[in-house]
Amino acid sequence: MKATILVGDVLVRFPELVDRSIDSIVTDPPYELGFMGKQWDKSGIAVNVDVWRECLRVLKPGGHLLSFGGSRTYHRMACAIEDAGLEIRDQIMWIYGSGFPKSLNIGKGMGTALKPAHEPICVARKSLRGTVAANVAKYGTGALNIDACRIDGEKYSSHGERPDMRGGNYGRAGACKMPRRKGEESADRRYAENGATNFAATPGYRGGDPAGRWPANVIHDGSEEVVGGFPQTESGYSDGTKSGIQQSVFGKYGAGTFKPTYGDSGSAARFFYCAKADRDERNAGCYDVEEKPLLWSSDAQRPGTFQAEGTHRAARNNHPTVKPIDLMRYLCRLVTPPNGTVLDPFMGSGSIGIAALLEGFNFIGIEISPDYAAIAERRMQTACPMFNQVEVRPLGK
After folding, report:
1. What is the spatial distance between Cα 285 and Cα 381, in angstroms, rounded to a whole number?
2. Domain of residue 1, residue span
3. CA atoms within 13 A on the CB side of 352
4. Of residues 214 and 316, which shows the higher confidence score?
5. DSSP 3-state assignment of 232?
């Protein structure tokens, strides 16, 4: 696997990339909010159609683009992506409990903003060449890696019991944390290790696909605030065959077997992937770097003023919008074929690069700030020690 960092303006470095050479693009561009008073967050680059046209150019046919956006400005970015020629396929909602309200206190219980608790992720795709199957066969792109991202796909215990999906680990991808590569055993083979030839007959098996639930367009962080917002639910349990019946809207369904439901209960959070953040991952690889204020405020004299009192307001990796690597790993494997190349045109401190390398993909990142590019290099080399060299290309090289 190979990692390359291109330092410089995204529109200056993009022409160096070859047409149809990228399998997927996963990125977290500026939200165009003027965050912390930073100029890079109000430059208009994320709503510049030219950027997304370049993304379209370098993607292979059927290649997917995943791009984070701010709740207030997402629509502008999505329109620019669509205007560039990409097809909007869906929107993933990332829900978290760590947001802090950036509100002006008017008094008498009045303010000016809600607490941020979600960020939308645009799911777009370059047009296919022929059918989906033909496109995947030729380019490896065009479809989502469903089995690699199933929810609660953990293997049965030695007693044949399903994991408890009511506890703090519900919604995690379990055995599917790493994508299944060519030549690896199938989910059926893995579960057959329990000695069962019929999953429905496996002791403790309550039904559903043994590989896990189908991935949804909602992801959460497992925090108490978020999980508390989900209701307690109980999945029905059924097993057997269905007969052909006539329905007034959907037509006639043929007879045959169908997969039983899980028959479990607990927080509805178990239906969704849970991407937890590691508290130490922000500064990993940067321990010899001087701590700097995060500057999460437009007031340079009082850095971090929107944070709660007592919060440590400095970090060695002082990039203000670091995303969980677990989240980025999930997104990379959702849209990238085995041995593919992931591009991040707005690399920041390199979380997506780390995620791509850990998932076994090649990575190309573009970052305008030499300081953040240096932090990204350190973080990638620390998180992925098998990559003892990450190639960094300054502007003009």
Report:
1. 7
2. 1-103+116-237+265-293+322-397
3. 29
4. 214
5. strand
